[in-house]
Amino acid sequence: MLDLLTEERSKVFLPGLAARPDIVLITTTPVRPGLALSDGQLNAELDTRKANDVTLAIRTHLAQRNGQALSLADFNAMSKHIVLDSEEALRAGFGFADKHPHARGWVQVYLPGYSESRDRAVLRFYLGPSFHGAAGTYFLLKQDSSWRVEWRDFAFYA
Q1: Which of the two residues, 132 and 14, has the higher pLDDT score?
Q2: Dihedral (C-alpha) 105, 60, 38, 83: value to the nearest 10 degrees?
Q3: d(Cα 69, Cα 57) in Å, to the nearest integer?
Q4: How far is CA 137 from CA 58, 92, 94, 97, in A?
């Protein structure tokens, strides 16, 4: 979430909203894993190197952790610019900007999937508002006791 608040990442949001300082975290994970966690979708969105980083074990763990929707309402954000809201924000469509006048967009995350050694993880999420939908993938590496972004990828559906 903090990475999405950087100026460089603001470009993934609609131009009229990109300069706004906040981002809304939807307080539930998606209802079903669906297409977003499938091998076909991941492979279609990522180049070969990135798709290979997301090993079968990580993909399996990602799917296992996201069999049902979970609440993130108790999430304690590390930044005052991460605002929590319910799924109603998704239904607002382009009225989202009126409901959240300081937010550049919303993000609905899946729980991350981890490697067996717990030193690599993949995080998938939807983001909006967008004209046709969008998704993001972050690949994280654990160094010492903290995680760093190894790469990120965004897919915008037309």
Answers
A1: 14
A2: -10
A3: 21
A4: 13, 24, 23, 24
Per DSSP, the residues of 49-109 read: HHHHHS-HHHHHHHHHHTSS--B-TT---SSTTEEEE-THHHHTGGGHHHH-TTEEEEEEE
- Beta-bridge partners for 109: 125
Count other Cβ atoms within 10 Å, centred on residue 37: 19
| pLDDT of 33 over the 70 cut | no
> Which residue shows structure tokens 């190894």?
150
pLDDT reported for residue 110? 95
pTM summary value = 0.91
Q: What is the pLDDT of residues 90-123, one digit of tens each?
A: 777 678 888 899 999 999 999 999 999 999 999 9
DSSP string, 8-34: GGGGGS-TTTTT-SEEEEESB--SS-T
Cβ atoms of 127 and 13 closer than 8 Å: yes
Contact call for residues 135 and 124 (beta carbons, < 8 A)? yes
Largest CA distance in the chain: 44
Domain ranges of the chain: 3-156
